[in-house]
Each structure stands twice: as C-alpha cells, then as structure tokens.
Specification:
- Four copies of one chain form a homotetramer.
- By secondary structure, the first copy, chain A, is an alpha/beta fold.
- Chain A contains 15 helices and nine strands.
- In chain A, about 55% of the residues lie in helices and about 15% in strands.
- In chain A, the strands form two sheets. Chain A has a six-stranded parallel β-sheet, with helices on both faces. In chain A, strands 7-8-9 form a three-stranded mixed β-sheet.
- In chain A, helix 10 packs across helix 12 and helix 11 runs antiparallel to helix 12.
- Chains in contact: A-B, A-C, A-D, B-C, B-D, C-D.
- At the B-C interface, helix 14 and helix 15 of B face helix 14 and helix 15 of C.
C-alpha cells in the first residue's frame, strides 16, 4: 500500500479509443486519480465505474493534473486537443507535463515540445507498441523520450501502462522516430508474407504450413499472429486499419527524407498501400496489404 | 536401446562442411551406421573418432546405404556428386534413397527426382533451417518432401538431425520452395534492419537500443541475433556468406518467375546484393547487406 | 502593326529568374506593356532597357494589369507573393487574371483558383516546359488550364512566350498535373541513363558511343542533352538544380497519393534523390542523379 | 554499277521472320548473292522471286558463303542453328564469318565467338535497332562488334541493311551489351508512360493530350509511337511480343549481375512483366506492360 500512496498522482487522460481505454484502466489499477475526456462521452462510462472522473473538455482534464496523457489518431487530433479551444495547453499547470502516447510525426513532437516549453509545461513523447489486448493487459512496450527529470518523475506512469519502459533519449521526437521505425518493421513483415504466400499459392505449395514453419523458425508471436490473419484472410474488423498503416509508412518516409536516408522498402510499401486504397481497403486491417501481392499474381 | 536397434540404418553422408559435420554427428548419436565422404578428407577425421567409416568417393559412400544424405553448396555441386564420375547414382541400390539437405533450385530438385526415379532410386528433398550451432545441437528444422512411403520410412533420419520435421508435400521440389521462401524472409529482415538502422544513425537516435526494443517487440531470436551482428558490424568471419545469400535471393526470383508471382522485395534485395558485391563483400556474412543502406545514407 | 495594337495588353510580371527574364522579354517583343517586379531589383534593369516599367511590390505590378504572370520557385513563394503583404491579390482588378507559370502542387493551384475566385479575380495555371535558353528564344511549351473564357482571352500571352500552347482543361490544377507528370518522365530518363551508363562502364563498353546510338535511336534532343551532361559529368553550374528536381518528384508522389495511383519509378527516384542529397549534391544539376547509380556500382 | 560489283558477296541468311525478310531483301537490293534458309520454307518464297536461292539447311546456306547472317528469336535458337545437326559451323569456310543480328545474351555471344574461332571461322555480333518496317526500309541501326579486320571487311553488309552502323568494340559481346541496354531504355519508356497515364486517368486529366505534349517535348518518334499504342490500347497483334520484352529485361539483369551494377528500374520492370504474364499478356505487344500500372490503380 505504501508504494501506491507514494506514487499516486492526479492524471488526466484524453482519448478513450480501443487503446486508450485499457491504458486508462491500468492507471486506475495502479492507484492513480484519473480524470478522463473523450469526444464521445459514452466511452467514458465504463471508466467511471472503475473510479475515474469525467471532464467536459481536454482543458478540464488537464487543469488539476500532474500529467495528462493523450492517445489520439494523428498529428492533427493531438494539436487540436492541445492547442485548440478548451485545449490542454490552456490549463496545464507550470511544472506539470503532457505525455503523448500517440504515433506522431517527429515534426509534431517538436512543435509540442517547443510550445509546451514556452508555457512552462513539460512534454514527453511516450508512444507504445501493442494491440488493444496488450493495452488492456498491461503488456505494452512504452518508448519514452524527454528531459531526464521528467522521465524519472513519471516513471510510475509508464510502469502502470506497460510491461517494459525504454528511455531512448532526451529529445521527445526520438521516441516517435523509434515508434515509426518499429511500425516500418512490422509493415515489412506483412508485405513479406504477402509476397511469399502469393508465390507459394501460385506454386500450389501449402502456404498455411509454410506459415507454421516460419512461426517456428522465427519464434515470434508477431509472425504467428500477422501470418495467421493473412492465411485466414481475416481483415475485417480491423485491429489496426490499413489507412493508419499507410499514415505510418508516410511518417517513415518523412523521417527518411528529413535525414537523407533512403528507405526503399518503405517506398515499396507506399506503392502497395496506394494499390490497396485504390481497391477500397482503407478500413480493412493493415494485414490486407497482402491482397495487393495476390492481385499482382492474378490470384484475386 | 530397443528403439535404436529397430531404426538403425546404414547411411551415407556426403559434404562435411560447417553444417554437415554436426548433422553427421547427430546421425551417429542416434545409433546409425555412417559412411562419410568429403572432398577434403581432413574434415572426416573427427567423425571417424565418433564411429563413422570413410569412403573414397560419393559412390562408395552410397553403395551399401539405405539412404545417402548430401549437404553441399549449390545445384552444381550436388549434380556433380550425384551424376558425375564415381557419383552416388552409380552405386545407390534400387529402393534406397538420396536425401538432399542442400538449398537447391526447384529445377535441380526436379532433375534429381526424375533421374533417380529412372534408376529405381528414391529421392527426398530435405533442406534445413538453422546455423552451424543448430546443426551441432540437433535444433534444425527439417523440411521434407517426397513420396509418402519414403518420407515415412526415413522419418527417424530427419528426427535424428533436427528438432522438428515438417512434411510439406509429395513433390520433392516443394520442400526447396519452402526453404527458398524462408531464406527470403530472413534476408528481408536483414535488409529492414539495414534501412532502419541507417535512418536512425543519421537521426542520431540510439540504434542499439532500438534493436533491443525490436527484439522485445518481436520476441524472436532471429531478430535478436541478426540485429546484433549489424549493430556490432561483426561480419567476418561469416556464419553464412553474402554470396550464398545472393544465390538464395536469385533462387527466390527464379521461383517467382516460374510461377508468375512478382516478388518486389526480392528484386530490391538483389540490387542491394549487387551493390554489396561491387564493394567486395562476397565473403562477409550476409548480414553485411546492411552496409549498402549505410553507404546510400553517406554513413560509410 | 494592326495585330499588336489589337492584342496589346497591360501585363504584370513577377519573378525575373533565369526563366522569367526570357519570358518577360518575349512579352515586350510581342508589343505588350510590361510592369515587372523582382525581389532583387538588379535583375529588372535589363528589362527596363527593353521597355518595361518597374514596380516596387507585387501589388504594384498587378494594380493596372489585365494579367499578372508569376514565375517563382515553389508553392510557398507563390502564395507569399499573391496573398502576403503587398501581394498581388490585394490589387488585382476584378476581371483581371493571375497566370501562374511556376511548377506548383495541384493543391496550391486549387487554393489559388479558389482564393482568386472569392475576390472576383481570374486564375490560370500555365506552367511551361523548357530550359532558360528556350524561354529566351520563345521555344517553351505552355500548358494552360482554366475557364474557357480566360484561356481564350489570354491566348496571345501564351503565344508570346512559347512556341506551342496546349489547353488541357478547365480546372487550373490539371495543367500542373501535366507539368508534374512531364518532369517525372524527364527524371526517369535521367535515372535510366544513370543505370545503363554505370553498367556499361563496369563492363568497359564505350558508354559515350552508347549515348550517341541512343540519341540516334530516340531522335530526341532531350536524350541528347541530358545524356551528354552525364557522359561529361558536367553538373555544375546547374541548369536545373537537383533540389528542385527532388521537389518535382515529391509533387508527383503527392499527386499519385491523392488519386491512389502507384508510381513505383517515382518512389525509386525519390530514394535516389535522398542518396544524392546525403552526398551533398543539392546544388548540382539534377542530371547528377546519375552519380547515385555510379556509387552503387562502386564506380566513385 | 562498279561499286556493286566490287562489294558483291556470297551471303547466307538464316531466319526469315518479320525482321529477317526485310533485311534479306535489302541485301539483294544491294547486289549481293543470297542463299536463304528458314525452318518453314513458305517464308522463303517471296525472296526467291527477288532473286535469292533457297537452302535446305543452315549448313547449306553457309557452305559457299563469305558471311552467313542469322536473325533468330533467342540464344537457344541461334546455338541450335549454328552447332546443331546440319548447323552453320559444320560448313562455314575458314576465313568466312557468322554475323549474328539477333538479340542475344553476352554469354551466348562469347560462346559463339569462342567456338567459331576454334574452327578458324570469324564471328561478329551485329544486333539491330528497329521494327519490321525499319528492316524493310533499310532504316535499322546496326551495332557491330568484332575484330577490326572482320568489321571492316563486312562493312558493306551492315550498310546494306541499315541506315547507320556503329562499331562499338572488338569483343563481339559488347554489341549485345549495347542492344540489351538500348532495349532497357525503351522498356523504361513504356513503363513510365504506363505509370503516368494511369495517374492522369485517375485524375481525369486528358492523357491522350498529355501524350501529344510529351511527343512535342521529347521530339522523339519512339515516344510518339509507343505512347500512341498505349493510349489506343492497341496491343494485338504484337509488333514485339511481351514475352520477348521480358526476355530482354532478363538479359539486362544478367548483364547487371555479371558486372555487379545494380539496375533497379530493370528489377521493377521484371516484376511488372511477371504481373503481365500472370494476367495472360505474353502474346500482346510489350507496350501492354502499361496494363499492370492500370490494374494497380484499379482502372481495369
């Protein structure tokens, strides 16, 4: 009990989507005081039952908080929530911090860091790896970057939502660069399965058994799970929508551009995403990228 | 002891390289009678101490065998060993089988199957996944394809050399297609690390820590090991030489061509292999493919 | 004389770079009244001698004009010149038109069309193909898009600056799409030469003679000129800087993205541009893209 | 008349396809004595009327010839015709030469050179650029490589079939390298049109007018003709079949591989050819490569 008392904080939480709800619940379980905000209030109800308070705006969620976490779709959503009317920046106290868990561009992370600093507010980028069930079960990997003081101070928050915290640097955008690079690696895995499966199907080799072999070879749940989605062609409902995967590949290409580092597999992914979008797949799971390879082999 | 007596076979083994030695030793450990042949006899010495007999030619290794295994560099080496002067095909008994563990083209596998059949000899493709230490420690994955009768009969042989056997079909070339596709997936992983690391190094983000995060995220020893080779730039001596990796990518492209299934990542790999070869890397580990990405980002 | 009297117009011209100066001079030669503006006034001097008046701001260049032409570096430069302080939009008369000759994004062209329309001003996109000597010698191709009325009315202006006018549609952005696509085709030509020359040089085949053959085969001055720049490695000073070529490839990728049409050669160009930028080539001619292919073949 | 008498030679000609017939006719027109052979004799009839003799085998076509020309589909056809039963090599006189006009691999050219030399026979690679109408009208470009003596001696032969002769070197395979590289450049042009047209069609920009603009810009009949085939979707009957175009891209990739020079656009072309073949386009014109881009943009 002591530990909880010592580390209990007033925390705001904005964005109760599939990921955010699990993360918010784990903050409550860790003993923190939570004030939540979501654009559609209905999603906040179950958290109220778990002990959260509800705010009427991001500003209200932030006003008494030591830290306010945001888990939102993209750059634009975060910037509106922070700097728009009744935004977080308007009420967050000096010395308190905004912790962004979203997958953002490095440019957006830099703007957030700079704008919060002007207001005497702290900012940490803390994107997470994991799907909604990992969020619910405190299995996320939390990648954090920000000033050492802030990262140390809010360590209990990161520990509350994930199974492992990685501090990557003192510039917040560095955590975003890592998250973007990690999603690039997962997208490449999906593409690779798509290509190999299409070839084996054309050759009439058992691609489901190939998937089992690869799962054994790599020993990775990520390979197991994504491979299975593609073998089963189970793309709807999406765990992570293709249009979001496309966004992340574009973020990778932007990052590559900023630092003059070619990323040819990401270029190839982008073209396959456009093919997928041209064929109406934006709301399917990003694993459906594999359909582009199947089409090119005349399998669809 | 009973089990061993029941399944003990006379086995020939040709090709005592880094992989073959471990495999041969495990056949001895499983209680089989082994007659080995290697072009340079010195490599056979330690196996003699372990109980193997030594043959003076592939033909001699095959002549009393129920099965003769070959673990050689490429199509040409296997075809010479089987059909050349004093080759396996000249002495292998009717009803006995040639089991090829090498990574071969599907075309070569089809020629072997057809030629052995004309002579009343059996043929099984049984390529393996795993590096030399896995061969030594009986941790290989063994992918087998051939007639059901033969695959059943020689199951104890596969079990003796690997930790898991996968029977993929009745046409021997199907096992080669799976092996080629699996190596395509590993090569893609190497390339992906190469690109992501180059970008992160340009961005001055800690790419070694990124590697740890990815290892945690994917939970795969393959990611762990290859990523570490690249982070440490430890490419010499090669565990698997770049020129062999290049051969396997070409096999993947041939397979893609036979079945009219585009494989754009393999095309990209091929171009990066050519870049690597142009820069003298043929004897380095295939993980050194990552150096091409580093060069393009002006990191070398 | 009659013809000139009938079609003589009051024209503003903003942007007297290498291209703009020749275009402005040809408008004077055709008998139009010209008021020019350039950020650095020195470049206007020679046009004063040719009969032009000089304005102190874009607004002044536009205020009495029936049409104001802009020939500037990129979206941002045009938007500042039009909508910034003392910008064109602040003085351009109702019924008069802004004719943009720059290579702009289709998004920028749409914003210009919409904003001018709100003010009762006309807008035409009229990008041009040709290098500075073509601008000087009235050899440009002028691609125009806008309402039929406006395009008809200003036909004498297009005729004055180019050797051929192509009206591509009634939506201004369509002309920009054509210009972007055309530059994509030229950039591809450069890349193709880069790859073929690198291969032939490695093979010790006379690539300069190959260039002569290709010039003969295609019968195109574009092939002749760009091939020669690469054979001679004459990249400095730039006729068209690599960083501008990179911008145009990005515009092509944006266009591809908007309409969900994959453009894989443009993706590949982008990666080679990043390689070129990583190696410090931003101010060299865009033909120096060929150096990336040479580096990959270990020729540099 | 003097000139003809001085340079008139006994010439054999093997391969009277669409290209060969026109070339043979021009040799007759130039005053040479011609003995022709074709696998299906019917195609020789019209040449008999023009003054040619007919042979019953390649050997017979070669036996009294100073030079025998071959214009055949691929490596295999040429090697059979030269070294097979009743092949050219069996009768060609010492000091006489085989002139191969086919598009061959550099490896095949080297074998031909070496085998002919062993027999005291000369060998010249003399591939040509041009379609059947260019062959008929003596408009071909003839790329020749071989020993200076031979190239000088047979100059009148090259002049008889083409409008321009280019001597690229003393090693016969060098001419093949140039031909392969030239076809790579044409295939890239086709691909570029395919991509740009697909994008503009999605954007509802007039791609036929874009083609006119590009034709004007590049000033090249090659651009004009291929672009028109694609705009009109006129792919059947094939002027040059897609499966032959695919062969030439593979030759380019082989060449790139031999000299360790990456050729990423050729890799991309190869993948698009596989897509085209998967969709049954092998007998359509190679300009139909553009259909792959249209499919990816969901236009088909």
């Amino acid at each position: 009990m002591d530990r909880i008392l010592l580390t209990s904080m007033n925390i705001g939480f904005v964005g109760l989507g599939n990921m955010g709800r699990g993360m918010a619940r784990n903050l409550l379980r860790a003993g923190h005081q939570l004030t939540v905000y979501n654009r559609t209030r209905a999603k906040a109800e179950e958290l109220i039952r778990d002990g959260a308070s509800v705010a009427e705006s991001p500003a209200e969620a932030a006003q008494n908080a030591e830290a306010v976490l945001t888990m939102l779709a993209d750059d634009q959503a975060v910037e509106e929530t922070v700097f728009g009317e009744n935004g977080i920046a308007s009420t967050l106290k000096q010395g308190a911090a905004h912790i962004s868990n979203s997958t953002l561009s490095v440019g957006c992370a830099r703007r957030l860091a700079s704008e919060h600093q002007k207001r005497g507010q702290g900012y940490i980028s803390a994107p997470v790896f994991g799907r909604p069930d990992a969020a619910e079960n405190k299995k996320l990997l939390v990648i954090v970057a920000g000033s050492d003081d802030l990262v140390t101070k809010f360590h209990p928050v990161f520990e509350a939502i994930g199974r492992q915290t990685y501090a990557i640097g003192t510039e917040p955008w560095q955590a975003n660069a890592v998250k973007i690079s990690g999603n690039f690696m997962i997208a490449t895995l999906i593409e690779t399965f798509g290509e190999a499966f299409a070839m084996l199907r054309k050759a009439q080799v058992n691609h489901a058994l190939f998937h089992e072999i690869i799962t054994d070879l790599f020993g990775s749940p990520v390979y197991k799970n994504y491979g299975k989605l593609i073998v089963d062609e189970q793309f709807d409902p999406a765990g992570f929508a293709l249009k979001l995967g496309f966004k992340d590949t574009r973020l990778a290409l932007e990052l590559a551009q900023e630092f003059n580092a070619p990323l040819p597999i990401a270029s190839l992914l982008r073209d396959h995403y456009l093919d997928a979008l041209a064929h109406g797949q934006e709301k399917l799971d990003w694993a459906s990228l594999a359909k582009a390879s199947a089409r090119k082999a005349a399998l669809e």
